[in-house]
Amino acid sequence: MAGVVATWPPAPAEVTLTAGDVHVWCVFLKRTAAELDALLPTLSPEEQARANRFHFERDKNRFIASHGALRAILGRYLDVAPAQLAFTQGQQGKPALAAAFGASRLQFNLSHSGDMALCAVAYDRAIGVDVEQIRAVVDATQIARRFFSAGENEAFAAVPDAEKPQAFFNCWTRKEAYIKAIGEGLSCPLDAFDVSLTPGEPARILRIRGSEAAAERWSVYALSPAASYVGAVVVKGNNNRLSYWQWP
Question: In terms of C-beta density within 10 A (0-12 exposed, 13-18 middle, 19 or more buried), how is residue 212 classed?
């Protein structure tokens, strides 16, 4: 975990999830060989095969750490051994717990970037999360013109140059978190909805296909899990209680 400093506290000994709760877990992906050896057997055979297909050892280890942590976190809520969890996928590939765990009504999402992953969990509410390591993007303006909405491009152009990397990833993570929450993946055009992006401005979905009323059905929370990382979690509904912790 060298080089990344946590800004979130460790989780309390007892963690419960009830209606309206939104829990976000920060997972650092640089793990010791012993930690990776302990996590690997908790993955399914398919996940282990995916891990072994990575060309670079670093990417393989990040996969093991992120998916092993996800299983450990979900197992904690369900009181199930991580290796016993089973998953399924929606039509656009959004992962969900298999039918055997459907009675829990637990919804989750996972994202990773660089040496960090975020796992978001909610009770019976669609949820999506995204995290990005803030960095200079040489062609940020061109990417924004291609993928951002007209309103977002106007707001992005007005941001001072020094704040543009933050603004770019504010926008990107909020948009990614939303399309992950609705489970439509890239079938939902990124310019079909507008999000806030200006640093210091509250995180919001402003319009969905031009409708402010549709946007008001969703809650957006900006996340700052560590220096140089920015994230967002999007949840269907309002009046949520947000908690965030560092996974061991």
Answer: exposed
- With tokens 């899990």, the residue in question is 225
User: What is the widest separation between alpha-carbon atoms in the chain?
Assistant: 51
Is 96 inside a domain boundary? yes
State the DSSP H helix or E strand holding residue 164, giving kind and residue range, or none if neither: helix 164-182
Q: Rounded to two decimals, what is the model's pTM?
A: 0.95
- Angstrom distance (rounded) from CA 164 to CA 137: 9
- How far is residue 91 from each of residues 19, 115, 183, measured CA to CA in Å? 26, 29, 8
The CATH number of residue 183's host domain is 3.90.470.20
The amino acid occupying position 153 is N
Q: Are 132 and 116 in contact (CB under 8 A)?
A: no
Domain span at residue 182? 131-236
Q: Give me the sign of the Cα torsion angle 242, 177, 93, 208.
A: positive
Question: Could you tell me if 142 and 204 lie in one domain?
Answer: yes
pLDDT tens digits for 182-205? 998 777 899 999 999 999 999 999
Structural element, H or E, at residue 62: helix 57-78
